[in-house]
C-alpha cells in the first residue's frame, strides 16, 4: 500500500476526536497560566509538560506538529509562521559565522535569496550546485560545512535529485542534510532516504486552498551510539544531546530559532493546516495524475512542456524509479518570449495568475517578470528561468477542461 492509501485512513482518524468536539480546538491564547510557582518552575525546566507561552509552543500547533512528525517518521516537528520561517528555523539553528552551506537544485526564489543575499551578510557562505554535480558537491565539503540543502523537486526547473545519493555523500562527510519537501509530501519520505531534517511550506499543497500561511520542520531522532551530530562539527548540539537525547535537534531548534527569532505558527493557521491534511492524501494523487495527463497532451500539441513524466525529460528514468508517487503539482511551459507568455496568461480562463502553488485551483505565473525579476541574467540562467517561462500548478479541475482552456489560450 502506498502512503496515499494508508494516510487516507490515518489523517482523518488522527485528526478527529472520538469523544467531545470532533474538530480540533483552536486555542488562540498567547499565554498560559501556571497556577502555582512550583508548576511555573517545572514548566520552565521542562519537568512539567504544559504550555509555556505560544511563541514556544501552542496546543493546536502541537497537534499539527505531531501529525507532521508521524507522517515523515520523525522524532518531533516544529511548525512555523511560513515556509521561509521553516527554512530559517532549520538552518539558523545549526549555523554560525564562518560556516558554509551547500545548496543543491531548484531553487525556490525565496530560498535562493535567503542563502545568496541575506545569510551571506552574516558571514555564512553558500555554494550552489545542480542536482547531478555529485563530485563537485563532495569536493566542496570542508570542516566548516554544516548543511547540505536540497529541494525534492526543482521549483521551477523541474529537475529531480537522487536524494539517496546526496544523503550518502552527506552521511559519509558527517554533514546535516536538509530537504525541502514542500512539493512532495507523502510522495517522498526524505528521512527514510537518509536526510536529517525536512522542511515544508504548508501554505502549498498541505493546506491546499490558500487559507493559511505556514511551515513545518520535521527532525529525525539522534541515534544511540554513533551519530554525526555527536561529532566535532556540531559542538553546540552536545549539551542538547546530553539533556534531551534523541530529541536534541528539536530542542536546539526551539531554543536557537523559535524562542529567539520567533517565527512561531499561530493556532488559527495550524487549525486550517490540519483541515488541509485531512484531504491531502486524496487530493495529491488526483493532481499528480492530472499533471501527467495535461503535460502529455499539451506536449503532443507542440507546447514546450517541462515535466519529468515526459520521455524527453533528462530525469525521466529517475521519475519512474524514485518518484513513482509523482513529483507534485507543477510543470512549466516555455512560450519562447515574454509577449507570448503574457498573451497566454491573458487568454486562459481557468488559471489564476498568482505566485502560489499547490492550490485546489490551477495557478500560473510568468517567472522572469515576477519572482525572479530582481535576479541578474546569470542567476536566472542557473535557475533555468527563460524569458517565456510560465510555471503552472495544476489544481483539482477536470484535466480535460484545463487542456481545452490552455490550447485555446495559446492560439494566435
Ligand atoms: C513556497 C515555498 C517556500 C516558502 O514558503 P512560504 O510559506 O511562502 O514562506 C519554500 N520552499 C518551496 C519549495 C516553496 O514552494
Report on the structure:
With 412 residues, the protein is of the alpha/beta class. The chain folds into two domains: 3-269, Aspartate Aminotransferase, domain 2, CATH 3.40.640.10; 283-409, Aspartate Aminotransferase, domain 1. It has helices at 3-15, 37-45, 59-72, 83-92, 109-118, 134-140, 163-173, 238-244, 248-261, 267-300, 316-322, 338-347, 377-383, 399-410; strands at residues 76-80, 100-104, 125-129, 145-151, 176-180, 197-201, 215-219, 305-306, 330-334, 352-353, 363-366, 389-393. The strands form two sheets. It has a seven-stranded mixed beta sheet, with helices on both faces. The longest helix is centred in the last third of the chain and has 34 residues, at 267-300. It is globular and about 75 Å long. The N and C termini lie far apart (46 Å). Residues 82-84, 108, 110-111, 151, 155, 180, 182-183, 201, 203-204, 213, 215, 357 line the site of pyridoxal-5'-phosphate (PLP).
Strand order of the largest sheet: 1-7-6-5-4-2-3
State the CATH topology of the largest domain: Aspartate Aminotransferase, domain 2
Q: Poorly predicted ranges (pLDDT <50, ≥5 residues)?
A: none
Give a short account of the largest sheet.
7 strands, mixed
**Average pLDDT:** 96
Relative strand content:
5-15%
Got a strand count?
12
Distance between the termini: 46 Å
CATH class placement of the largest domain: Alpha Beta
What structural class results from the helix and strand content? alpha/beta
Helical run tally: 14
